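Sample entry (172 residues):
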Amino acid sequence: MYRQFALEGEVHAVLDCVPLAVRRKLDLAELKISLAGWQTLSRAERLALCHLPVDTDEDVAVYAEVLRGFAARAGVALTPLAEAPVRRAAWDRDAVIARLRDRLGPEGALDEAALGRLAELTEEERYALVKLADPKRGPEKLRALLGELGLIRGAGGASLPGCSAGGASPPG
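Predicted structure, serialized as tokens:
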């Protein structure tokens, strides 16, 4: 099972957008797929890409090979990730704390209890925090995720519309 964030709404039922969990897998595979390309893949292929593991370097290599095979079958172009190579350290606990402090500022900083809970988060959850804390994004989805993860009060888990929850790679 892969991590399905409530803030992504119906994305997981339909798979019309790239879920955050798959974005992490694509980053680790150092590949990008456009939203149109993702939607061209069959639902079964998109579902497989959601569920395939990327826990080890071998898993990531298999994931990339499977993705390339699906894309070739569907005539979908994949592009190398410009920021490659991607390291898991980019969303470790310290990286998440730094990104959240930069994004939220002193008035929105997490309390000590929430900072302690960061160590309990999964890699997928930490990745989502880093992605949604990007200054190019609005704060709504980050606050919803912080609430969903129990890191702040009163912001929890609401579904927000659209593919921009980090759910879609930009076209081309």
